[in-house]
Amino acid sequence: MNITFSTLQVNIFLDQFESNFEKVKQYLLKLPELDKHLVVLPELWTSGFTENLDQADLANREILSRLHLIAQEKNLMIAGSYIKKENEGFYNQLVILSPDNQISTYNKNHLFPQLNEFTNFKQGKKLSILHIWNIKIGMAICYDLRFPEIFRSYAYHNVEICILPAQWPQKRINHFNALLQARAIENQMIMISANICGKINKTQFGGNSSIIDHLGVIQKKLENQEAFSSSQIDIDNVYKWRNEFPVLENIHYQMSKEIENFYFDTRD
After folding, report:
1. 43 is catalytic
2. Residue 84: which of 105, 65, 113, 101 has the closest Cα?
3. Where are the chain's structural domains?
4. Which of 23, 84, 108, 122 is an active site residue?
């Protein structure tokens, strides 16, 4: 079964909801209309890490309604993260919407301390899996990438694909690239990332959005400019590799195991 994946990379402007949306809209309208097509947008692409949370929540609700019309017109599954208000708190929330306006969500589990995300956002407590096209899609956001247990948990639940919107800076872009490949290889899982590019305030972002297959092979990768990229992948190859090289059958959860400690005497 073939599925087309697209990743969209843009430079965004803080609090410029309408101009950010219009830019992304023009890219989305250029994408081909296909039977099974998932596009991933960056983290907080409508707003950036704004302090105007109520304004962002209100704008994002309107933007998601407009995105649904594009999803319907282009037969797209559209994923990205947004500032959303729920239960008297704000979340950095990944939303996947379908052409028929079905919605799946994931609230970022690992908030980034250097950006003081804990000040503005509540921490997500659950992982999320979207079931569609007889496959499973896992969800994560940016800093979550540094926590392999998330992706191992998805692999344990037989997830074939994981998507990751991000705002990853240029100065640590080598980590971004290495970790994405590692997550794909160790979990025999397709990884789709969408980062931003350009500069916001004093931070230069690193781009390098990519589509990486279950073998860790980079199918598509953007550099550090505004662009989109697409790749068609046969999901049956994921199952074939997992059967040929059944690493995931040998998962042992080390957290629950007893630790045997050894202490050596030393003579100083």
Report:
1. yes
2. 105
3. 2-250
4. 108
Q: What is the pLDDT of residue 230?
A: 96
- Phi then psi for residue 114, to 5 deg, are -65, -20
Distance of alpha carbon 243 from alpha carbon 259, whole angstroms? 31
Active site residue 142: yes
Task: Tell me the per-residue pLDDT of 196-235, one tens digit each, with 9 for 90 and over.
Answer: 999 998 999 999 999 999 999 999 999 999 999 999 999 9
Residue 162 catalytic? Answer: no
- CATH C-level class of 2-250: alpha beta
Rounded Cα–Cα distance for residues 238 and 140 (Å): 20
Instruction: Give per-residue pLDDT as tens, 41-56.
Output: 999 999 999 999 999 9
Distance in angstroms (rounded) separating the CA atoms of residues 263 and 268: 15
Residue of 117, 122, 142, 162 marked catalytic: 142
Among the listed residues 93, 95, 63, 92, the one whose alpha carbon sits nearest the alpha carbon of residue 78: 95
Mean pLDDT of the chain: 94
Nearest to 136 by CA among 97, 163, 101, 108: 163
For residue range 116-167, list pLDDT tens digits in order: 898 999 999 999 999 999 999 999 999 999 999 999 999 999 999 999 999 9
100, 105, 89, 8: which is closest to 53 by C-alpha? 89
Point out the catalytic residue in the list 23, 43, 74, 117.
Answer: 43
CA distance 43 to 121: 14
